[in-house]
Structure formats: structure tokens, C-alpha cells
Amino acid sequence: MEKGAGTKDNLAGHSAGEASGLRSALLLAALLGGNVALALGPWLVRLADTGPVSAAFWRLFLALPFLVVFAWMAGQRLTGMPRRTLVLVAIGSLAFAGDLASWHIGIGMTRLGNATLFGNAGSIILLFWGFIIARMLPRGFEWLAIVCALGGAGILLGRSLDISPETFIGDLFCITAGLLYAVYLLTLQGERARFGSWSLLVWVSIFAAPALLALAIALGEPVWPTDWTPVIVLFITSQLIGQGLLVYSLGHFPPLIIGLALLTQPAIAAVIGYSVFGEVLTALDILGMVLLGSALVVARTAQRKSGPGMAAKS
């Protein structure tokens, strides 16, 4: 009897181990899949026959009904926010709208690899901000992140200036986007825990989409697409698949793994830039990207309090 019981226990343990292994594999696939989906965003922004800011509007506006459904399925409330929270959401949403607008404009001016790296620089900016708030000097690998960030950014900016002033300005637009994304994260980091990632994304989209539309009209951009395919694929891959997979997976991995997975975005963007748009990378470009990518990993590892769905570039 004891032998039979032991066999059953072993079988149960084996089944539990297999189930755990399958779940871990699915979570890792979701993490990588989310980053791959987001990496396609810059390519689709270029393909859209609207203006870049108009494309940002459509990616939020078209996704809004689906975000509402996701929030409802997750049991996250969409009403009952106090006035203070709505004010913070409005401020954070304007920063997010500025992030998307600046990033989309930069995507059309600089190389895709640069745009993706600089657009995700919010983690590095948050690391620097942490030093200012804590009034303390960096320690250990944090110094490495600073050196790598400054060295990598300097190389990539210098190379862009060698190519053309427009490419350099495009880099600056993408760096501005990273800065605004950090403002967005800092503004809403406390509210995410109270209302949930999907609920907050709904309200951010409600505030940010009209701001993007108004900016697109003010810039004289074409708003209505003649070819809806790039815009539709953009909102599906970036706002639904990308965000959805990351919200599902981010809370299950340590920051180091998340940071390493993030590097799939600039790698894929650089490959697309080379194969589709002929953006050739020299050895110096690759060195700059490696340095800046390393800084992103270290900064993301140090950013231990980021919440699911809020630390990923959308």
C-alpha cells in the first residue's frame, strides 16, 4: 500500500512539474511575443499614409473598446476614480500623448534601431531621477549603466549627425519621447496599483487620443487613412497583442529577464530597418546600440517597483 501511495505521489509530482514547466514556457513566450509585437510598431508607423501623430491617434482610438473589454474581464473598475486621480491621469495622459507624438515623428526621421532604443530610454531616465530624489550617488552596476548610456547615446547621436541633420533631429525627438514616457510612468505609478493596468490604460487612452487628434490637425497632417491596413495592424500589434502579452507576463519575471527581453525590440527594428529601408549599421553603430542596450538592461534591473503594463513601451 505504501509503495502504491508513493507511486501516486510521484506521478502527481511529475504532472505538477510538467504543468509548471508548461506555464513557465507560456509566460516566456508571452514576454518575448509582446516585445516582438511592439518591435513592429515603428515599421507600421512608416507604412501608414496618415501623418505620424495621426497614426498615434488611431492606435489609441481603435484599441479603446478592446481595452474596456479587457478591463471588464480582469475585474478592474472603470468608474469611481476620485478627482485627484483623474487629474493625475490627465497629466500622465498628456505626457503619454506627447511621448507617442514625438516618437512617431522621430521614427520617420531617424533609423528604426535608434528610434526604438531612444524611445525606450525611459528606464534610464527613471534611474537618473531616482538618484536625484534619493540625493545619493550611483552604486555598483548603476555606474556601469550611466557610462554605457552616455557612451552609447553619444556614439549613436554622432553617427546620426554624420548621416544627416534630419537623422540627428529624429534621434532628439525619440529621446524626448523617452523623457515624456518617464514622466508618464512617474505620474501614474501609484494609481496603477489602485485601479489596475487595463483600467488605467482605458482612461489614459480617453484623455490622450483627443489630444493627439488635436495636435495632428494643428500640424496639418492627413488624419483619415486611404489604406487602413497599416493603422489597423499597428493598433492590433502594439495596443492589443503587445500590451496584452506584457500585462500577462511581466509580473512573473525578475527585472533582469524583462530587461534582456526588451532588447529584442531594437534588434528586430534594426533588422527591419536594414532589410526594408536599407539602413546599414556600421561596427560603430552596433557598438553604440550594445552600450545603450546594456544600460537599458541595468536600468530595468534596478527599476524593481515597475508594474505590469506600465513599464513597457507601447
Main beta sheet: none
Uncertain runs: 305-312
- Please state the oligomeric state of the protein chains shown: single chain
The span between the termini is 57 Å
Helix amount: over 70%
Q: Measured on Cα atoms, how large is the radius of gyration? A: 21 Å
The fraction of residues assigned to DSSP E strands is under 5%
What string, H for helix and E for strand, traces the elements in order? HHHHHHHHHHHHHH
Which secondary-structure class do the elements indicate? mainly alpha
Look at the structure and give the mean pLDDT. 86
List the SSEs and their pairings.
Layout: H1 2-39, H2 41-47, H3 52-61, H4 64-73, H5 83-107, H6 112-119, H7 122-134, H8 141-163, H9 165-195, H10 197-218, H11 229-249, H12 255-262, H13 264-277, H14 283-302
Structural overview:
This protein is mainly alpha-helical and 314 residues long. The protein has 14 helices and no strands. The C terminus is likely disordered.
